[in-house]
Amino acid sequence: MARGTTSAAVLASLTLHSCVILGRENWTHVPPLATNVPRIVKGQTTRAEVLDWFGEPDLETEQGQAKANLNMAMIRSYWPADTGIPEPLKADLERAFPYSGIDENHEALLYVEQRNTSVLILPGGGTAHRYVNRLLLLVNRKTAVVDGFWYQAEF
Q1: Residue 76: pLDDT over 90
Q2: Nearest by Cα to 57 from 99, 104, 111
Q3: Which residues have CB under 8 Å from 18's CB, separation 6+?
Q4: Mean pLDDT of 130-144
Q5: SS3 letters across 89-110
Q6: Do residues 141 and 105 make contact, with C-beta atoms less than 8 angstroms apart?
Q7: Is the peptide bond between 31 and the residue preceding it cis, with omega within 30 degrees of 0?
Q8: What is the pLDDT of residue 41?
Q9: I need a labelling partner for 69 at 20 to 30 A (CA). Which of 29, 44, 76, 80 fits?
Q10: Which DSSP symbol is given to 31?
Q11: pLDDT tens sequence across 87-131
């Protein structure tokens, strides 16, 4: 590119009235889910090991009903443990958990991590992306052993 063209492009960019805002939010577990997922062995890993490696699940079934816990990274970032989850949010989360009624023999444990990225250009538009990691485990209620699990990583 010629020197005059480069100078004109720089001058033009300085005279434009615009602003670029970059955003990024990370709601991950400590340690991240991907750290311990390889340790899970179907038919061998126990519920106690899962809780030791990942902590309390974000959502779990309790007597056939979904139960939201404060372990969810997004919730922890907004509400301290001593305040609990606001009831309307808790109810929405529990209603959205579709695994509460798999069968009477299994408990479902769900762990979620999320990353949001955004670019906002003013005036004008922008883009936003959401990436989610999910770990779903089915634990046999009688043996307390993981009968199956599913892990999806987007980041």
Answers
A1: no
A2: 111
A3: 121, 122, 123, 124
A4: 92
A5: HHHHHHHHCCCCCCCCCEEEEE
A6: yes
A7: yes
A8: 98
A9: 44
A10: S
A11: 777 777 777 666 655 788 888 899 989 888 888 888 778 888 888
